[in-house]
């Protein structure tokens, strides 16, 4: 009998396990994971950016946990001698109409208590000589880590403290009772007092296995990156971002100075035909049918039709993708880019067609379901874990008697 069973060994699941052990080293803890190792999906297929929290609504959970997570993530990497580079980020206005939007981002950063510096055109050129911009913001606290490395270290520490991680265990059934939770995988059954669902791309389905409707559905969006040819790395010194399009819920194509020396360019955002659809050819009939039969998808598809079609065109054409990226670096040519990594974002969408913007938790009688953990979840994973423990597990980490306060 385990005290807590966690589904998923992505960064959020590992962050929850880490926080539980911080509060009570004697908890009997299990993580079940369907893949062969940690961070196999969203956690290991992202931009590796440590965000500052500048974009997020003041007072939101994302804003608070991103700021706290930025500090704790860099501290964790320093403590365990993991790669980290607080290289800073510039957010660049390339058109006059973007200047007011840039000012709004600056004010939001101030409200969120962040260090943000306005840059004139000349000051931007001193930092990024090849970037086209009228004005910019410098966010010094943003940077890069290797999130797969972070996840592997967290998994190692959790096991060293006595926690169990069982790989190749895909959850197929969950039964809650008044005294505990039974978790059935394809090859084993586990008994626990409490359950935490950190299933990422499948979090809504896992919640449904436990008998809970989340009021939302996970819709997968694939993000495709290119990589600069090494002889063009001089074009990028920082993390370089455009001013986000207020009419589209993604940050737009940006340039990332990576831990491996590469300069990634992207991502776009296109509907994936499979929840773990990293290639254009990946297809799953159930996954796609769920999306296409979901009223919320069609409502949001109509709202963002123009931008959505533009994203698809950029996905199919390197030339169009380059044209978009050249708004920031005009010198860029299609032959300067090679296909790079891809990731899939688990975007929670309500039946009414609203994007679930903040972290979202669904509570059961013996379970907690993390049903929306988009960016900056990687940045904030240690703090999300502490938030979950403080908010939902405050009693059991002391006396093991109750979960909900």
Write the layout of secondary structure elements.
Elements: E1 2-7, H1 11-23, E2 29-32, E3 49-50, H2 61-79, E4 84-85, E5 89-93, H3 99-111, E6 117-119, H4 121-127, E7 135-139, E8 143-145, H5 147-160, E9 164-166, E10 171-176, E11 181-185, E12 189-197, H6 203-209, E13 216-228, E14 239-242, E15 254-257, E16 263-266, E17 270-271, H7 285-292, H8 295-303, H9 305-316, H10 318-325, E18 337-350, E19 360-363, E20 367-372, H11 381-392, H12 396-399
Parallel strand pairs: 1-2, 1-12, 2-9, 5-14, 12-20
Antiparallel strand pairs: 3-8, 4-8, 5-7, 6-7, 10-11, 11-12, 13-16, 13-17, 13-18, 15-16, 19-20
Helix pairs in contact: 1-5, 1-11, 2-11, 9-10
Distance between the termini: 23 Å
Question: How many helices?
Answer: 12
Count of spatially separate domains = 2
CATH architecture of the largest domain: 2-Layer Sandwich
What is the average of the pLDDT values? 93
CATH fold type of the largest domain: D-Amino Acid Oxidase, Chain A, domain 2
What is the name of the CATH superfamily of the largest domain? D-Amino Acid Oxidase, subunit A, domain 2
Instruction: Return Rg in Å.
Output: 21 Å
Shape: globular
**What structural category do the secondary elements indicate?**
alpha+beta
- Report the uncertain regions: 397-405
How many E-type strands? 20
Largest sheet: 8 strands, mixed
Helix content: 25-40%
The first-level CATH class name of the largest domain: Alpha Beta
Roughly what fraction of the amino acids lie in strands? 25-35%
